[in-house]
Amino acid sequence: MACPVQCLLRGLCTVALILLYYVFSIGITFYNKWLMKGFHYPLFMTLVHLAINFCLSALTRKAMQCWTGKPRIILNWTDYLYKVAPTALATALDIGLSNWSFLFITISLYTMTKSSAVLFILFFSLVFKLEEPNPFLILVVLLISSGLFMFTFESTQFNMEGFIMVLLASFIGGIRWTLTQVLMQKSELGLQNPIDAMYHLQPLMFLSLFPLFLYNEALSLSSSEKLFRVTELSPLLYSLFTLSVGGTLAFGLGFSEFLLVSRTSSLTLSISGIVKEICTLLLAASLGDKMSVLNWLGFAVCLCGVSLHVGLKTYYSRNKVPSLRQLSSKTSELEMPLLLNDSSKRGDSAEDERDDEDEEQEIFLK
């Protein structure tokens, strides 16, 4: 009788984690879009989010250290600047351009265009030899590309400037996720735990995005009544509060992804991500985004391509490694589960590292 009860509890836990992931992921998308209607400084907003993420990850690391009694990893300057900086730069540009695009495009177009990130991830994973060439990848590329074309064709709410921004963000996102996987798989760096990775990435991401903010928004923001030229205290507090809520949602998204992957598998996160995009499109359409039958058909074709890619990764991963569960212990909340790779090269110490990570993961679930 214990087995069915355990299966039921495990199933309920998985559903709860998926719902938590949906709340943060869908929530931050609509929240940022809503905030951009009255606060036209997406780069400054992103910088505030990065600062909040760094503070929360630092507090989490401190709590984990107190709980386990083990010191957290701190990289030396050489590794930090030469190995972490490229990932931080790509991540900062991806997030910054994505938030920037909300000034111009609808949530439906944003969601659909960001789905094309799979194409760039595949391209860069082949360049970095993280992905083995496969004839089915051609079909994946054709499905996603044609779906994106059908979705944007004669769209009544299409904006070229915003579309180019989010497409560029998807391109940089391909570099970002590929570099993230390379970074997370370097066991000598000790950044397998995503909280440690977030802690090290946020400062460099802030510094990478700050010059672009100075060039594009600093002068305008300095003369804006939203922050620096307020005549009353209440508008300032309101702006700081709304920005802080967005930063908390951003941290919660990464944290929920980590929990979902650590307690289930990266395949669960992949499938949940596909369903999440469908929910986002339906919710956006119900809130006013105009979509034709051709747009919906294009979205369906694109999802078929993404689903085929996830299915292929699952099939080949199961033929290479004992289980997806073992792979998931090395997946970070920053890493999209589209680049699962053979973990047999990590050496005999991989089992000990998994034991340490399992001990750390229990902290979040008690």
From TrEMBL:
Domain Sugar phosphate transporter as annotated: residue spans: 16-308
Bias type Acidic residues, positions: 350-366
Pfam families, per database record: TPT
Protein location: Membrane
One annotated Gene Ontology cellular component of this protein: membrane
InterPro entries: Sugar_P_trans_dom, TPT_transporter
Signal peptide range in chain numbering: none
Ranges that cross the membrane: 12-32, 38-59, 103-128, 135-153, 159-179, 199-216, 236-255, 293-316
Protein origin, superkingdom: Eukaryota
Name used for this protein in its record: Solute carrier family 35 member C2
Annotated organism of origin: Austrofundulus limnaeus (Annual killifish)
